[in-house]
Amino acid sequence: MLEIKNVTKIFNKELSADERRVALDNVSITINDGDFITVIGGNGSGKSTLMNSISGVFPLDAGEILIDGVDMTHMPEYERAKFLGRVFQDPHMGTCGNMSILENLELAKRRGKKRGLRWGFTKEDEEKYVELLKGLDLGLETRLSQKVGLLSGGQRQAVTLLMATLITPKLLLLDEHTAALDPKTAKTVLTLTNEIVTKENITTLMITHNMNDAIKYGNRLIMLDHGHVILDIAGEEKKNLTIKDLLKLFEDSSVEASDSLLLNK
């Protein structure tokens, strides 16, 4: 589903070699259809740069990115939207706060499609959204007309997740999407994430700072350090992985586990 071929991204290229930052260094990853991959690594390891490279936030210095055989290497960010769903760390980034829940969901329904002069809402759409929102168990199914900006962070992130998967994407990118939430709400959103990804068999990359979550969710785990993939583990090997094992891997690879990783173990 996703091929990352010899991708390199360098920041501050105009500076001296010592001052440049190689965020991704000749990274190659092949991701299969239906893979649910958790991505872990210390601060500055290249996790977010990998996400931004896939979504087209900035151009690559070298390499190629293909989704389902389509070369997206030089495709602008807005054109990639029809392939991708994305949920950010900040709950405010995935929704429009001045628009209602219904309006936000309708925008998501039209992602990657041509606009036309026709009625914006249908009764069938509204009924579908009510059922989807009921599944969140947050009471939002009776508040379709409420502005999203009035929701709590967890409610807003849950709506963002629905929006990102309303039209099943080729690839779902979750960039520490529970990091800004309290533990109870984070657990709710993660459970919802797992249910949606599993039910719809969505190919997913999820960055997390929580070692427990990295082990618990998904069928594959990738660890990055200084722009390199230093661990790619899947199947039974991942199922048998423990936090102690992960910490040992950090130690053996001379990677310093960040404070956030240690605190979230």
Description:
The protein has ten helices and ten strands. It is an alpha/beta fold. 35% of the residues lie in helices and 23% in strands.
Distance between the termini: 31 Å
Major sheet details: 6 strands, mixed
What is the CATH class name of the largest domain?
Alpha Beta
Proper CATH architecture of the largest domain:
3-Layer(aba) Sandwich
Portion in beta strands: 15-25%
The low-confidence runs, each spanning 5 or more residues with pLDDT under 50, are 257-263
Q: If you consult CATH, what is the topology of the largest domain?
A: Rossmann fold
What is the radius of gyration? 19 Å
H/E topology pattern: EEEHEEHEHHHEHEHEEHHH
Helix content: 25-40%
CATH homologous superfamily title of the largest domain: P-loop containing nucleotide triphosphate hydrolases
Task: Provide a concise account of the structure shown.
Helices cover 35% and strands 23% of the residues.
Give short descriptive properties of this protein:
single chain, 265 residues, alpha/beta, Rossmann fold, 2 domains, six-stranded mixed sheet, four-stranded antiparallel sheet, 10 strands, 23% strand
